Amino acid sequence: MLGVLCEPICWPAAPESACEHHFCRLCTFKVLKFADASFYEPATGKLPGPSSCPICRAPARDGAQWMSANELEMDESFSRRVLDAHGPEHEEQARVHAAELDLLISRDAALPRIVAPIVAELAAPIVAPRGKQIELTLRTPEQLVSLAKALANQTTQQRFGLLIKGQNWGYIAGVVSPRLFRPQKKPPTMKEILAQWRFSGRVDKNLKLTLLLIDTFRLDSPLREEVVERAIGMIVNSPEVKPIKMGTLRMASPAPLHFSSVQFSSPPQPAASPPPRSPVSLLDAHEPEHEEQAAAELDLLRSRDAALPIVVPIVADLAAPIVAPRGKQIMLALTTPEQVVSLAAALANPTAQQRFGLLIEGQNWGYLAGVVSPRLPPQKKPPTIKEILVQWRFSGRVDKPLKLTLLLVDTFHLDAEPREEAVEVAVGKIVNSPEVKPIRIGTLRMASPSPSPTTSPSP
């Protein structure tokens, strides 16, 4: 028996496929749009795109993921059969679907875009990328010039793209270390950045970087090539530098709210992610025999959600929210012994990747952050809280406000009130304050999945 397929679309399968399955226009649009890195299967190396038919797994034809809802061609004969069998139900369903389509299209249009260089290609996707730090080595003059162009671009906050090889999506990243140019009164140009690197000897060897993955993106259009000036090529000892690749990158996260005129009486909800590609949700009314699969998938989603919280110190309170926080660098001065000890506790915790919380004053949400500078000296094993504080005391940082450059990794809301953790007298003495008040430890539920360890990708 036919279910109520609203505006039935034949799956836009690749030419070599024999797939003739039909789905609602809304369902087809969702499947085509929302295939992303979360569906990468590391065990098999399976890539997420292109989208595939929810029933037979026939891949969609090239470019189908960019089709608008109106470009999906309705099967007229199939539609007549549905209307004959379920006229009134179809009309009601069509109104519901039209409203949801309008919402999805408006959300998609509101996703922020940046025009940025593609610095390198990665061999494979990364599991749980957002907020993760990776090691990357740049080996070619084109990669060096692309990175210099990104760092000279203040409008994109010095971010750039890492494309997945053979795909039209990837990660937006920023440099954590080394800091690649000295502070200047005005933003440096590409030539100034490259000249500094040449002076420091970085141009003549592979440039090793620690990057932070800020968000995923998909390309809005094919990459365009930008010719490199010969003068720039001379600086990197390669006059004939190939054109660098520039892309219009549409980020996966919705445009942030503007907080300046908003007072929250309750914590803001994390921005809604695109609905996951789910064959079960597409077949719900039409294929009752898939109920067991639906229950299993729901259990999986619940288990993923349960894995989101991390337990870290709350280092400081911020007076007000920050506009467009994810990936932004901020300056913060720690002025109390409790703040200094809280930061040391965070940096001594390798399981949380040395991240910590900044709480919005009077609220139960805030930002997950990490230190960009000053960095701790490298050590063979993770340092203890005491060892970190001794280093800071020896360097004179304990006796004055500890000024930091932080990177905001993600937003969070508290799962419960922060608990207090007493500070040892010995630790207090190191910071010249034996009576240090208890520090606050919070269970933070992040807006994005918690990163998990992974091997470093190669460009």
Pick out its properties:
disordered C terminus; Archaeosine Trna-guanine Transglycosylase, Chain: A, domain 4; flat; five-stranded mixed barrel; five-stranded mixed β-barrel; alpha+beta; 459 residues; 3 domains; 16 strands
Task: Provide a descriptive summary of the structure in words.
The structure is a single chain. 26% of the residues lie in helices and 24% in strands. Helix 3 crosses helix 4 (190-199) and helix 8 (337-347) crosses helix 9 (385-394). It is built from ten helices and 16 strands. It has 459 residues and is an alpha+beta fold. It folds into three domains: 9-110, no CATH class; 113-251, Archaeosine Trna-guanine Transglycosylase, Chain: A, domain 4 (Roll); 306-446, Archaeosine Trna-guanine Transglycosylase, Chain: A, domain 4 (Roll). The chain is flat and about 85 Å long. The model is unreliable at 36-49, 255-290 and 450-459 (pLDDT under 50). The strands form three sheets. Strands 3-5-6-7-9 form a five-stranded mixed beta barrel. A five-stranded mixed beta barrel has the order 10-12-13-14-16. Strands 1-2 form a two-stranded antiparallel sheet. Strand 5 and strand 6 (169-177) form a beta hairpin. The longest helix has 35 residues, at 76-110. It has helices at 25-33, 76-110, 141-151, 190-199, 230-235, 279-283, 291-306, 337-347, 385-394, 425-430; strands at residues 9-10, 22-23, 113-122, 133-138, 160-164, 169-177, 207-219, 224-226, 244-251, 309-318, 329-334, 356-360, 365-373, 402-414, 419-421, 439-446.
